Amino acid sequence: MKRYILSAILMVFSWSVFAAQPEGAEIKFEKTSHDFGTFTESNSKVTCTFKFTNTGDKLLVIHQAIASCGCTVPQYPKEPIKPGESGEIIVTYDGEGKFPGHFRKSITLRTNAKQEIVRLYVEGEMLGSN
Hints:
Elements: H1 2-20, E1 27-29, E2 33-40, E3 45-54, E4 62-67, E5 72-75, E6 86-94, E7 101-111, E8 117-127
Parallel strand pairs: 2-8
Antiparallel strand pairs: 1-3, 3-6, 4-7, 5-6, 7-8
């Protein structure tokens, strides 16, 4: 009986040590949302940058960056990001031809990180040109 208890304790201990070690890519953003504030229809194109770091121990690959609307365009690194290195997602919102007012758009990232899907958000208030 003592052997079974000792074996169980050793299995739990070895599993907890194994689970505590990072394995794979991990993406960590400085922020996941950006507020453009108020801008006018005559200056309807606004851009922001989301900075991230691969805090894991494997290469980070961003497979896709999909915006919720055609008025929002994300640019992302196509090359793998090494462990400890950083990268940027540049998001441009173009309100030309859109109705003035408040907007909130999402960008969905698909990666090989432990958290496979990450959503970034941009929002703002575009004032009419009148």
